[in-house]
Amino acid sequence: MTGGDVRFTFEGVELDLGRYEVRRDGAVVAVEPQVFDVLVHLVRHRDRVVSKEELLDEVWGDRFVSESALTSRIKAARRAIGDDGSAQRAIRTVHGRGYRFVADALEVVRTDTDDGQQRRVEQHIQFCTTHDGVQLAYAAVGHGSPLVKVANWLSHLDYDWESPVWQHWWRDLSARHRLVRYDERGCGLSDRDVDDFSLDTWVGDLETVVDAAGLERFPLLGISQGGPVAMTYAARHPERVTGLILYGTYAQGRLARAHTQQAEDEARLLVQLVRLGWGHDTPAFRQVFAAQFMPEGTLEQWEAFDELQRMTTSPANAVEFMETFQTVDVVDVARAVSVPTLVLHARRDVRIPVAEGRRLAALIPGSRFVPLESTNHLLLGDEPAWPRFVNEVEAFLTEIA
Q: Which of 10, 55, 95, 231 could link 105 by a cystine bridge, Cβ 3.0 to 4.6 Å?
């Protein structure tokens, strides 16, 4: 199965990321590579103003270019998409700050199904605001009964569709359901400049998203660090949650469950690795996490995971996430969960041991535990454990429906 073919459409224009083309009214418009990269970066970050410095860093990297080079590429981008410079219907200049893409863009993903056919998936990203003023990005794809995926570390609503780490998850889970996803605060397309990272805050963010999406009753999917958030929401709002699916997660974070000095030292070492190495150009530090999340992954998949880390959050936020995840303790919350629950875990998961999955299933009354034959914390689309996971989830959702 191959990955997603991602395109953005707006006002008769199509940006085809797979073919690296700009099409206007069906005709290909010739653009320089930097012009295309500028357009894609602005569209992807249309929730905010993008500074000139950020565009120069993203498009030209370490090469030194003048600000006038960027200005000329902006002008070329506007010509390519038919955006009148004075009206600025798509690319707006925010004087003294940078540029913002303001047209209403729709993301279209064409994914290959198991029988070789292509399925068109439309993703329209929207934004909602939490009680403390943080803007969260959320999106719904697919049709059918709802399935809400709780946010976890390392997500990007746009980029996920191109990444071999996540694309098969959203393709297959949206095949029969209206899949609702969101980027958590500090991550992806949601506000990055935030200072409140806590379990209660994350639960509040989930409450904001499901209300904004107009959902009344729905099942929740909690993956890895999203598990404690999903469990807490389900315990607080059993009248709204029809079922709970937990994969590769835990009741206590690594530091909270550490009973020896060595376990504590290992937990703190991981945070220190993030603190020292996340922002470096060399991927060596980040690849430590790739090896933990996908030990059976290929070099290409490891590189994709490294790029996912770089794309999704800042070094400072990565440290905040790690420190908070490490100390989470929802043992009492798990005991209070009263909705039907399915717990799945890879047998040889090196990131979160399978013993934590079994312990979680024992804590949640009436839950069912399914071990999966894999070493990967994040299941890959080409391993046998993946279709088993999808089949178990679909059977569970059919049962609770």
A: 10
**CA dist list (Å): 27 to 13, 88, 219:** 9, 22, 43
Which residues face 148 on adjacent strands? 180, 220
Helix (H, G, I), strand (E, B) or coil at 123: strand
pLDDT tens, residue by residue, 210-231? 999 999 999 999 999 999 999 9
Does the pTM surpass 0.85? The reply is no
pLDDT score at 1: 31
* Segment 247-270 mean pLDDT: 92
Split into its structural domains, the chain has a count of 2
| Structural domain range at position 230 | 125-400
Tokens 């000095």 sit at which residue?
A: 261
Under DSSP, the state recorded for 32 is: -
Of the candidates 155, 34, 146, 41, the one whose C-alpha atom is nearest the C-alpha of residue 99 is 41
184 and 230 assigned to the same domain: yes
Asked if residue 120 belongs to a domain, the reply is no
- Round to whole Å and give the CA distance between 286 and 77: 34
Residue-wise pLDDT tens digits, 298-325: 888 888 888 888 888 888 898 999 899 9
Do residues 169 and 224 both lie within one domain?
yes
